[in-house]
User: What shape does this take?
Amino acid sequence: MFPEPRLSAANVMRRLLVVMCIALPLAAQETPTEREAARDVIAKMAALQKSLDVPALVAKLTGANPVRDGVVTRAKQLMDTELLAMADDIGRHPEIGFKEERSVKLLTDYLKAHDFDVTMGVAGLSTAFVAKYRKGTPGPNLGVILEYDALRGTKGDFHGDQHNAQGPTGIAAGIAMAEFLSRTKTPGTVTFYGTPAEEMMPPPSKTVMHDAHVFDGADVIVRSHSSMGTQRAASGFGSCCLNIDGVKYTFMGAPAHQMTPWDGRDALTAVIQLFTNIDAIRRVMRPETRVQGIIVEGGKAPNVVPDRAVADFYIRYPDQVYLSQVREMVDNAARAAALATGTTVRIEPYGSMRDGISAATLNEVAFGYLQKLGGVKVQDEPGKPQGYEETGSVSRAIPGVGFSAHTSNGGFHTYEMEADAFGAVGHQGFAVDAQAMSALLFDFATHPEYRALVKQEFDGLKALYADYQAALLRTYVTPRIPVP
Assistant: This one.
């Protein structure tokens, strides 16, 4: 299958740690309820991974290979000489979602200069693009997701999640591989997917692009993301940020002078009552639930009873089955608020995020390379299961992996993380991500046996997902409430 490398004592210990982590059933899903409800499904997932012998796969792929190392060296060279500077440039000129014109031009101009044909405005999104390698040949289609939008901040837009580096990092890995494919006449090609406005979801741009079949034809997809440690996800089903329903609640009342408010109906009071109702029912929601809302419209003048008010909510839970119950409770809280205040309410769901599939054959190989190539603050045990991109739509359809080397000592969405993007911590981590990404893409393109194992695991997990949902449906039973 693959040449068997000699294992040092350190590598043997690392291999044993990987075996222990993969065999640990409690790492399989995020909450105790999920793990207990889906015990049989988790056992089947563990059996699938055991049959694939993932630790041996990691040891074999990450062993000595001078040809692969040449591709890795090229990725680092591109980062050091050109693309870290591009990441800094994008970071100094932050642009929020769907306004990333300057950032997109930098990325696409660079890709055009390196033999990629760019199509802008895919899926009807003005700053989304696809770049296809014009020298590619039939064979594995290696997909790379690029992000570039900034956060909306009270002090101004800023790259507190280091999206400024995700484009340059992915480009370094993809171009290094594209050049290798052409130079060696290895079958295959590289496709970049420019995905805007990640911080403005839901609805996430990746889901919109997926629904428009933009990702069709990709055999594997990789991406990178900022991280406080060198890490990887456990295999299984999940999302980085929980399953989400994005919902707006618009209340309508009647205006009146505030000196005679009884002549009107106060929509702002209805919104405030909605928040009060939600706070009252939090204690009967499972503890992993998150219900987060803001008032986006609450009237125009203090002396006029507001006849229109709007609240925007993210309703979150680790799985979509119980999320549906939480959503019903919040919707009913809105209806109750309208009834109590004599107003009306319109409930408008505008987007969602759902579980993705996380595959050990990709995650563990990526993690092995991140360690081999200099990732620091290594987190030995895998994190919770999560798809490699936030939406779940793409990562339930196409196998892939997110690379997370240590790139910041600050937390996500902070000014500290933005500052680290311009310094040694960020630059070191971004270069490690690019190199590790190029190494895994090399393995996927050059080892048909590896592609087969990835497909075997991914198809097996997809087949188990319906069983997982069914197990949760049997568990989250709603109580019967008698009529008084």
